[in-house]
Amino acid sequence: MGEIEIYEYEKMDLQNAFVITGFPTIGLVGTIASRFIVYSLKLKLLAAFLSDYFPPVTVVSNSQPLPPIRIYGEAKKCGPNGKCEQLLVILSEFVPPSVTLRPLANKLIEWCKENNCETIVCIEGFNLGEKTEDIPLVGVASTNEARKMLENYNVELMQEGMVSGLSGILLYEGKRRNFNVACLLAGTHADYPDAKAAAKVLEIVNKMLPEIEIDPEPLYKQAEEIEKQIKVQMEKAKPSKRVYAEPIMYG
Fold this sequence. Notes:
The protein has one domain: Rossmann fold (3-Layer(aba) Sandwich). The termini are far apart. Helix content is 35%, strand content 26%. It has helices at 29-41, 98-114, 144-152, 165-177, 195-208, 217-237; strands spanning 5-8, 17-22, 44-50, 59-61, 64-66, 69-78, 84-92, 119-127, 137-141, 156-157, 181-188. With 251 residues, the protein is α/β, with parallel strands linked by helices. Helix 1 packs across helix 5 (195-208) and helix 5 (195-208) packs across helix 6 (217-237).
């Protein structure tokens, strides 16, 4: 496995940081929600994960070429009870190859521990199977402290099931390393991007950031248009052997 490195565009004191991750899994919930947070709060690009094993692709945003896995942040009072002093968002528009997921998860946790970050919150979707008006939300956590945090926000804890991808590895590695990892999962569908499910998760994230206002209402309103745009992009990508989601832009 090729080494995964972190390239820092600028230095920032990350002690007590509250870290949110969003990667494209079921319903693209993580990617949609995390990009919405970055654009809403105008977070700065701080760093990126780099590896020869990642797809050879650049994400173009505001006319700038960017690596596929990026770290955005800003000094902001956030987290439960406002005890965190920085907000970080780690996001991607592509699914990392499966062989890179565990090295990536370990690199992420090691980096967070080295910088004394407080908590990682993963945003995910889980497959409902059928379309419903109500969007269920469940959570799972790596430590007792992270579980209590979810309970304090009235998030129902998952009793049985599976969490796949990077979030799943972060959860069991967080438990092994005694690092706080919480995962918020909104019910969605595997067949199409679900901006409404992303907005449902943001309702809880908003409560976790008491001194920062992230209004999910625009995402609810834009949900249909965002889903149409992504569906078109996915259709265009079908002939290709690999599918890379194009950047999702919000007005």
